[in-house]
Amino acid sequence: MGGRVTRVFRNFNVENRASREISKEKPTPAPRHRTARLDAMADSPEIKEEVHRKDDRFLTLLKDVYVESRDPPARVKDGGGEHLPSKQEEKRLTKLGHLEGLDVKKVPKGKISIVEALTLLNNHKLQPQIWTAEKIAAEYSLELKEVNSLLEFFIPFAVQEFPKETKKAITSRKPKKLT
């Protein structure tokens, strides 16, 4: 219903409004910048002659210029674009046990792999008297300060399973009726 009303107002006196717009004076274009007039002058023969004429003064200056180019020293390419380290890092074999296939085999000294980090955090959580920060630092070639902050700020997840009796007790409970 609303569309019909708006259509009536939109189409009211359309022809008169259209003829009024058509009969209006057209706006005059903005004046052109004078550089646009230079493009027309570029076709003139005097300007073409000036462009193609050789200047002896510039030719003598150009002859005085001497350019000597040298190629940069050739570099020996190493295999695959890999950069060789400036000093060889000492590496150690990882202590993974049964998780050996999951992680890297060699790790630089002073660093640990993810699987090793999870293992040592779990060992410390289960047996903190045996796996102290000093023992972990000596075992994995780490600094004591880093091991202390690792043990303080990172805690492995603990999986908790609820006994089956509690599940039955929860599901067997009937909801209260509101009266």
Describe the structure.
This protein is mainly alpha-helical and 179 residues long. It has helices spanning 2-11, 14-23, 35-41, 45-52, 56-64, 114-126, 133-140, 144-153, 164-172, and strands spanning 91-93, 106-108. The protein has a domain at 91-153. The chain has nine helices and two strands, in the order αααααββαααα. The chain has a two-stranded antiparallel sheet with strand order 1-2. The chain is flat and about 100 Å long. The model has no long low-confidence stretch (mean pLDDT 77).
Secondary structure blueprint with pairings:
Layout: H1 2-11, H2 14-23, H3 35-41, H4 45-52, H5 56-64, E1 91-93, E2 106-108, H6 114-126, H7 133-140, H8 144-153, H9 164-172
Antiparallel strand pairs: 1-2
Note the run of SSEs as H and E: HHHHHEEHHHH
Describe the biggest sheet?
2 strands, antiparallel
Q: Could you report the average pLDDT, rounded to the nearest whole number?
A: 77
SS element count, helices: 9
| Shape by Cα distribution | flat
Classify the helix fraction into a percent range: 40-55%
Give the terminus-to-terminus CA distance: 49 Å
Low-confidence stretches: none
Total strand segments: 2
Strand content: under 5%
Strand order of the largest sheet: 1-2
Which secondary-structure class do the elements indicate? mainly alpha
Radius of gyration, in Å, reads 43 Å
Protein name: NADH dehydrogenase [ubiquinone] 1 alpha subcomplex assembly factor 4
Region (Disordered): 17-49
Family: Belongs to the NDUFAF4 family.
Subunit structure: Binds calmodulin. Interacts with NDUFAF3.
